[in-house]
Amino acid sequence: MAEPQAERPRLCVFPDLSRPPSAADIETWWQPHRKIFGEFSSSSFGDFQTVFDQPQEYFMELTFNQAAKGVNKEFTVNIMDTCERCNGKGNEPGTKVQHCHYCGGSGMETINTGPFVMRSTCRRCGGRGSIIISPCVVCRGAGQAKQKKRVMIPVPAGVEDGQTVRMPVGKKEIFITFRVQKSPVFRRDGADIHSDLFISIAQALLGGTARAQGLYETINVTIPPGTQTDQKIRMGGKGIPRINSYGYGDHYIHIKIRVPKRLTSRQHSLILSYAEDETDVEGTVNGVTLTSSGKRSTGN
């Protein structure tokens, strides 16, 4: 028979048989262990450990500007961490623990079933090697307790909606997923931002300058003569920091021409005069008709 390898946990050793073990042999060995494995898989200790090993996820609301520029934001979390009263030992401070005689303090127990040997976590002490006589009144012997902590979250500049970061809190880790609010001014495309700028008809025809709201400051925009509606003006490096690279994105300003709804008498006369000289009009213009010679004239 092969010697059991005691140093490796949960090791099953089959005897040195002249033939491989049959299904009947395996079933014979497995039958008395069903209850044992069932106890380990459904024990409160196993479920308890699984709960603590799972990082907790939180959601943080950010404004568009906070996500774009970065911010240090205070945040409250409720996490399971090492019990501060017993320092994770599980027993009430000032009390002693009892040596586990079931496993001899090793935390592992050996089960012999015929020719088979199995080592597994001690069912009596749960692998601690000792028995807690007076459990901690806060964590009730678990060594872990729910704690409310206020932490400062350094939000990196350029995070996007739905991105998640990992952050250590105490001896644990948490995941924080950012939810970025929409901006009434800017639209985002990666590290680039887009916004609209309304200009007058005169500015569009003759050119000039206009002031646009930027991410970091007010921008003076030069309007070239003959600017068309929806024309884009690129402001290089005025966008959002590239989170996985160097530099900044660009700010694209979309020109919108504001057409006045009402005109003064003088403006009306000037526009009619301008309309008389237009040659690329498809259709008609109110107040301007074609004469018999094909030239435009102002109708009465």
Automatic annotation (TrEMBL):
A zinc finger (CR-type) spans 70-148. It is found in: Membrane; Mitochondrion. It comes from the Eukaryota. It comes from Pongo abelii (Sumatran orangutan). One of its GO terms (cellular component) is mitochondrion. The gene is DNAJA3. One of its GO terms (biological process) is negative regulation of apoptotic process. One of its GO terms (molecular function) is protein kinase binding. This is DNAJA3 isoform 4. Keywords: Acetylation, Chaperone, Membrane, Metal-binding, Methylation, Mitochondrion, Repeat, Transit peptide, Zinc, Zinc-finger. Pfam families: DnaJ_C, DnaJ_CXXCXGXG. CDD domains: DnaJ_C, DnaJ_zf. Residues 70-148 form the CR-type domain.
